[in-house]
């Protein structure tokens, strides 16, 4: 569904990585790891078409990013859920409306029952009417996850979703992501937390990719 083929990226004159290839098939589970600054966020931006690759090719649902116009990209983006590192809520709107925002923004009807189910799934039924600034870190991340899956995307990309969470909450969030994957969503998680990856690998089969030294490699069992 998302394919990167020999992709390179640089900011200014500084090359971040080159020759990166990745293929996210239906129902696949990937981790992307590597030190801070290695380019994980940049790679996610390439995966959802936010950035054009400087060289190589990115294909979203079989279509080359280079050949996609604005409407093509918008259509592809509706099939991809993204949990950004800084959750970015509209602070004056309650959690419920923030979660429904992807539908509201594209003028689609909000199925209230589904929204309730989704809030229940992430454990935020009691916070549905709360304003985002009153949420804890774990609640924010779960709200961001709910918002990302509101449109039932086929692919979910999460950037350091457990970045500021304690271990118990990290595991809880991971469980939600694993559950989503078991229901058929392809998942890619960018994280530097190797404990999280080890915990996931004890439950599901996931491919672990590591960006280091400007290349991406498949990590072995020696995590
Ligand atoms: P990671 O997610 O692995 O921490 P990033 O992709 O966020 O890595 O960033 C990789 C490097 O690229 C960092 O050194 C960062 O400062 C730099 N960078 C990120 N975005 C930009 C940008 N828009 N312009 C210039 N440099 C950037
Ligand atoms: P530190 O506790 O110094 O951060 P550790 O390697 O002990 O370093 O743990 C790294 C992270 O993993 C910590 O956030 C820790 O709380 C968390 N952690 C706690 N329990 C476990 C566990 N059973 N398995 C893996 N990681 C755990």
TrEMBL record:
TM region positions: none
Domain ABC transporter span(s) in chain numbering: 2-223
Example GO molecular function: transmembrane transporter activity
SUPFAM superfamilies: P-loop containing nucleoside triphosphate hydrolases
This protein's UniProt keywords: ATP-binding, Nucleotide-binding
One annotated Gene Ontology cellular component of this protein: plasma membrane
Highest taxon of source: Bacteria
Protein name: ATP-binding cassette domain-containing protein
